[in-house]
Design a protein that fits this description.
The longest helix has about 45 residues. The strands form 4 sheets. The protein has a 5-stranded mixed beta sheet with strand order 3-4-7-8-9, sandwiched between helices. A two-stranded antiparallel sheet has the order 1-2. It has one domain. The radius of gyration is 29 Å and the shape is elongated. The N terminus is likely disordered. Strand 5 and strand 6 form a beta hairpin. With about 350 residues, the protein is an alpha+beta fold. It has 7 helices and 11 strands.
Length: about 350
Amino acid sequence: MGPREARLHVGGGGTGVSTGAGPFTYYHSLGGGGGSRRGRSRARPDARPAAPSGTVVRPTAKAARVRLLAEEVALIENLHRQRFDPAVPRSAPVPVLPDREELRADLEREHLRGTWFWQLSRRAAARRRAADEADRRLAELAAKAQTAHRAEQARLDEQWRALVRNEPQAVLTEVAASFEDNAAPAAPVGVDGAELSIVVLVPGLDAVPDHTPGVTAAGNPSLRKASATWRWDLYQQLVAGHALVSVREAFAVAPGIARVTVVVLRDEGPDVYGRPRAEPVLATRIDRAALDGVRWQDVSAWEVVEQLGRDTLLETRGRADEVMPLDLAEQPDLRALVESVDLEDLD
């Protein structure tokens, strides 16, 4: 599918997309230079020894910071492990009718107005009229509610059929709505048959801690300056994690989609004019069937991308394996997709 215009808006009002851009049609895999590698395992901080009975232990500032750092690292390492309930056909809400007795009582008060308590026959007739009117109104309301319910169910059924048929507007609308609350802004930008293209915007290396949490031999919390290799390795997990969580969510809400092409853009900060910039750092295709049976708790995000991604592009440089912007000179479709993204609303 050729590129189409797409605009990704990221800001306080949420992420949006207008008119899609199709998936890029071909890639070349990177070779050599350490551009593709498995994620390294990292040690979790051990628990502190229990205090003697009756002793109150207050966490120190260092212990609190160590705990927060450990949570930050765990959050990055677990990004790809989020699960999403698959979409199912929706049912229109069941109409709720007024309570008959409450309606009858209200009408009875109206009909009894102007009668005296000793006018027994008039009051009895008023009560009968109120009961009859209540039944008539309820029947009318029920008929209208059933008509509206059938119309709404028909609309939902057609919406579901369009989603299953992979009609572009239906898929783009549903996926865009599901992405609105994502930690990393994401948007669908094109549908080609059973393939969906999405873009994800991730932060830079500053999102990765610059210290590593740990414990001393005595069991005390410790902080060490993180090495460049450790930080870039964790950053690679962050990039892959945000890509995978967006892919998994897209598969969950679009049941007819069999493959997702994902392009991850890194926020490069504003240029000299104050305009936001972003560079592609990862591109890959993931098949729905390939994710069946993945042992998510036992593998890292990058391991999943490396082993299951098709035509994966990731460039690293130097001893620390710094994640670099992709060279798009030989990727015209990918370049067109990236250039079509509008980041003017980025805060």
